[in-house]
Automatic annotation (TrEMBL):
Keywords: ATP-binding, Nucleotide-binding, Transport. GO terms for molecular function: ATP binding. Pfam families: ABC_tran, CysA_C_terminal. InterPro entries: AAA+_ATPase, ABC_SmlMolc_Importer, ABC_transporter-like_ATP-bd, ABC_transporter-like_CS, CysA_C, Mo/tungstate-bd_C_term_dom, P-loop_NTPase. This is Sulfate/molybdate ABC transporter ATP-binding protein. SUPFAM superfamilies: MOP-like, P-loop containing nucleoside triphosphate hydrolases. Residues 3-235 form the ABC transporter domain. The lineage of its organism: Bacteria, Pseudomonadati, Myxococcota, Myxococcia, Myxococcales. The keyword Oxidoreductase does not apply.
Length: 355
């Protein structure tokens, strides 16, 4: 069951800027599609429009080719999981999972069998008799998944389902969701502001910014071929270097990079450099990269297995470089030292823009 969204627009106040503006995309059948973007980008509103919890001003939602735009949420047959568990506190785990089945007035034996099946699927067989207050956050969220899946939804819609959990549980549940998806094969939409989560778990990514779709494609497309400065800066934590087109090259400080097509002499450019796309060296060793530049180590920050090096370039621009700890130890630099920075790759955009 694919999800197709056509020109969806939703404005909460007349004359105000739309929360979702003219968004169209296709979430492929059987895949996990992430809706990724910063806070306020319109991700949740978009998901709610697809679920039928919001009504669009303009546009259509098609699930498996059927126009659902005017159907109420109960008739769309979608499973929804929110960040806050939204479980019924006075009901046991079993009763929570059975809720949607009882609403649909299924015979008791069928309800019991389906609840057992769901408890097995989310690996909580032993906890069916507990109340939500007696579960960990991760377990509660698995119950929320079981409840959403119990009704055999056509698609699964997830709004930051792991947002309220600590990092370790979040990572565990990410793995768990991946396995769950492999076993159910359900078309899934996942709202997240966490690029790592989106790139790791999904086969398709829709990047949102200020209510609009900034880019959609595979995680590799989004990461390797950002189409706008916004996507280049939002994904991958790139540093931005300012420069201009000079004699057929992009001059960014003392770096000379390849000119993008259609760039004119003298035009302003911005080069986006990812933290692991720069190689540091004490001396120039026939750089493999675009061209080496001298920088000063301004700040060092050790983060687990790697060190973040903040470099100040002669142009005044700053570049953050991520160096594996073993490599950093061999390099042996301290704050204030001069180093050669070999920029291996950069994404260059021409012209003025606002991120
Ligand atoms: N019910 C509402 N009434 C008025 N404005 C709303 C409502 N819901 C959302 N908005 C506004 O719409 C915009 C998009 O909000 P939305 O929650 O969809 O963004 P988001 O990308 O999901 O953000 P977050 O990651 O912080 O949840 C925001 O400016 C928000 O304030």
């Amino acid at each position: 069951m694919s999800i197709i969204v056509e020109q969806l627009t939703r404005r909460f106040s007349p004359g105000g800027s739309p929360a979702v503006a003219d968004v169209s995309f296709h979430a492929p059948k059987g895949a996990i599609t992430s809706l990724l973007g910063p806070s306020g980008a319109g991700k949740s509103t978009l998901l709610r429009l697809i679920a039928g919890l919001e009504v669009p001003d303009v546009g259509r939602v098609l699930i498996d080719g059927v126009d659902c735009t005017s159907l109420p949420v109960q008739q769309r047959n979608v499973g929804v999981v929110f960040q806050s568990y939204a479980l019924f506190r006075h009901m046991t785990v079993r009763e929570n999972i059975a809720f949607g089945l009882n609403v649909r007035k299924l015979p008791r034996e069928q309800v019991e069998a389906r609840v057992d099946e769901m408890l097995r699927l989310v690996q909580l067989e032993a906890l069916g008799g507990r109340h939500p207050g007696q579960l960990s956050g991760g377990q509660r969220q698995r119950v929320a998944f079981a409840r959403a899946l119990a009704i055999r939804p056509r698609v699964l819609l997830l709004d930051e389902p792991f947002g309220a959990l600590d990092t370790r549980v979040r990572e565990e549940l990410r793995e768990w969701l991946h396995a769950l998806h492999e076993s159910t094969g359900l078309t899934t939409l996942l709202v997240t502001h966490d690029q790592q989560e989106a790139l790791e778990i999904s086969q398709h990514v829709v990047v949102m910014s200020e209510g609009r779709m900034a880019q959609s494609g595979s995680p590799e497309d989004i990461y390797d071929r950002p189409l706008s400065p916004f996507v280049a800066s939002f994904i991958g934590g790139a540093s931005v270097l300012r420069g201009h087109v000079l004699e057929g090259r992009v001059a960014v400080g003392s770096l000379a990079l390849a000119v993008p097509p259609a760039a004119r002499e003298g035009e302003a450019v911005h080069a986006f450099v990812r933290p692991h796309d720069v190689k540091l060296a004490r001396t120039v060793v026939g750089g493999r990269g675009l061209s080496p530049v001298m920088g000063t180590v301004e700040r060092l920050k050790s983060v687990g297995g790697f060190v973040k090096v903040l470099l100040r370039l002669p142009s005044g621009d700053e570049v953050t470089v991520q160096v594996p700890r073993t490599e950093f130890d061999e390099l042996g630099v301290t704050e204030g030292d001069a180093v050669h920075a070999d920029v291996r790759t950069a994404t260059v955009f021409v012209g003025d823009y606002a991120i």
